Amino acid sequence: MASQNSSSLDPEQEFLKRSFEEQNPHVPFDLGQETLLKLSPRFFESTLRLRGVPRRHGCLSPKIQSLISLSLSSSLTTLHPPTIASSTRAALSHGATPVEILETLQLTSTLGIHACNIGVPILVDVLKSHDPKGYEEEFGRAKDAEREDKMKDEFTRNRGYWHTFWNDFLRLDPDFFEAYLEFSSVPWTRDTASSTTNAGADVDATDPPGLPPKIKELIYIAFDASATHLYTPGLKLHMENAVRLGATAGEIMEVLEIAGGQGVVAAEEGARSLGEALRERERESGRGEKRGSGV
Predict the structure, then answer these.
(1) How far apart are CA 130 and CA 136, in angstroms?
(2) Quick one: how far is CA 110 from the chain centroid?
(3) CB half-sphere exposure, 36, CA atoms < 13 A
(4) Fewer CB atoms near the end CB (10 Å): N or C, the chain?
(5) 229-241: per-residue pLDDT in tens?
């Protein structure tokens, strides 16, 4: 392979490099991109087309597309710092406020609770199978019905919905559920100037404007649909919430398309390692030639 100096690109490769930079002004054209481009221009071009479809269709604004990308790259199951950085820069350049970016991260931080969403129903099945009578005696009735009802009402008011899968979670450990209620409600209990209501939540009028409820639901859809998570129950629930809040098929499809394009990172990261290995091999070869010539 020739030196990885970008000056060695042929005219077709230079064109594709410019296309990449125009399409991704906040993403550096690094060794990974260059290696992909030189070794497989066809694949490199196909990644531009794949990732470019949502941009061309534009059902979601560039700002919202950048926030979706930020959520996908910062989610617990992905955590890809280069895309976190480029998506943050892109979101700011398209007019996102620090509050909107922070809300995106706050919403994405709730992904961890899916350990309970998946684990609690399994635990309940195991406990009931092991000792049905014991389970009913301990968890069949609320120990503090007034407290449970209050938390259900607050969750519904803040988040705009209630689902039956929260019932066992609340019954098994009301203290942890209460802590999660507070944690997950923070991005929902902000004064949102861009919407007339915020799912009925009590808001702090001193807070700067944040994201409207529909966009919050699209962010949930993004990380639930991510190939590194694929949480089907939450994906369906948040699609239902988003549609109820006015999301179109095109908007939800763009979220899924952005998530689908994230797979290209595998090739980019792998190509960067390949490029580094090839450079190291060239350096070793050069040193060997110098020793052989007596230099």
Answers:
(1) 12
(2) 11
(3) 24
(4) C
(5) 999 999 999 999 9
State how far the Cα of 119 lies from the Cα of 125, in Å rounded to an integer.
10
> What single-letter amino acid sits at 230?
L
Tokens of 28: 């550096």
- The two structure tokens encoding residue 232: 């089907």
d(CA 227, CA 212): 26
> Strand, helix or coil at 143?
coil
Spell out the alpha helix ranges (H) of 209-263: 213-225, 232-244, 249-261
Report how far Cα 22 is from the mean position of its chain's Cα atoms.
23
At 213, which amino acid appears?
P
How would DSSP label each residue in 68-116?
A: HHHHHHHSTTT--HHHHHHHHHHHHHTT--HHHHHHHHHHHGGGGGHHH
What distance in Å separates the CA atoms of residue 178 and residue 244, rounded to the nearest whole number?
A: 26
Tokens of 195: 């919407």
* 20 vs 9: CA distance, rounded Å: 14
Question: Which amino acid would we find at residue 259?
Answer: A
| Residue owning tokens 């763009």 | 254
Q: 């996102």: which residue's tokens? A: 96
> Residue 93 is encoded by which pair of tokens?
């350049």
Least confident of 197-201, 205-209, 251-255: 197-201
Backbone φ and ψ for 204, nearest 5 degrees, come out as: -95, 110
Distance set, CA 288 to CA 5, 225, 292 (Å): 21, 50, 6
The span from the CA of 278 to the CA of 221, in Å, is: 39
pLDDT tier, 8 (very low <50, low <70, confident <90, very high otherwise)? confident
| Single pTM value for the model | 0.86
Contact (Cβ atoms closer than 8 angstroms) between residue 39 and residue 271: yes
Answer whether 219's CB lies under 8 Å from 108's CB: yes
